[in-house]
Design a protein that fits this description.
The chain is of the alpha/beta class and about 140 residues long. It is built from four helices and seven strands, in the order E-H-E-H-E-E-H-H-E-E-E. The protein has one domain: Rossmann fold, CATH 3.40.50. Bound molecules: adenosine-5'-triphosphate (ATP) and magnesium ion. The site of adenosine-5'-triphosphate has 17 residues, from helix 1 and helix 2.
């Protein structure tokens, strides 16, 4: 499915819709976020966290590859930014496989290309494209 997000409000609305989807699903929910630098991946994660009721600030992790935020009734939003990874090895050492298997987890991944082969077959995908200063096109798969 393809959508144009005209502004930040539209991105927030999409994040709210997806927050409902990920809460409905039982079992781990994995959302891979593709797109160039500055295309809106972290911004989307910030809105998703807000929609899930997470109060902590979601930053674009510079040195931290993985950040956990609890929400709801014992669930966990895991924000992974694989940009600085040389290979999947570092994330495997941080327990990637167990993270992707844990039913309580909603895992959002920036730069998922680096760990593509470890992503479960039911991974949902969003690809962000810059089409204007505040406009983004998103291509969504498997929602
Ligand atoms: N409709 C929109 N949706 C998302 N971001 C938008 C939108 N309009 C403007 N922006 C701006 O675009 C920038 C997107 O930056 P963001 O850090 O989210 O990108 P990113 O994809 O995570 O980049 P990186 O690969 O460097 O992590 C932010 O400054 C945000 O405010
Ligand atoms: Mg980012």
């Amino acid at each position: 499915m393809e959508k144009v997000l005209k502004n930040l409000k539209d991105t927030e609305k999409l994040a709210r819709q997806i927050s409902k989807e990920v809460c409905r699903k039982d079992g781990p929910s994995v959302v891979a976020l593709y797109g160039d630098l500055g295309s809106g991946k972290t911004t989307f994660v910030q809105f998703l966290a807000k929609a899930l009721g997470i109060k902590e600030k979601i930053l674009s992790p510079t040195f931290v590859i993985i950040k956990n935020f609890t929400f709801g009734d014992g669930r966990c939003l895991i924000h992974i930014d694989a940009y600085r990874l040389k290979s999947a090895q570092d994330l495997l050492a941080l327990g990637l496989k167990a993270i992707l298997r844990n039913k309580e987890n909603v895992v959002v991944i920036e730069w998922p290309e680096k760990i593509e082969k470890y992503l479960p077959s039911n991974t949902s995908r969003i690809c962000f494209k810059v089409v204007g200063e505040n406009a983004r096109k998103v291509i969504m798969e498997n929602f």
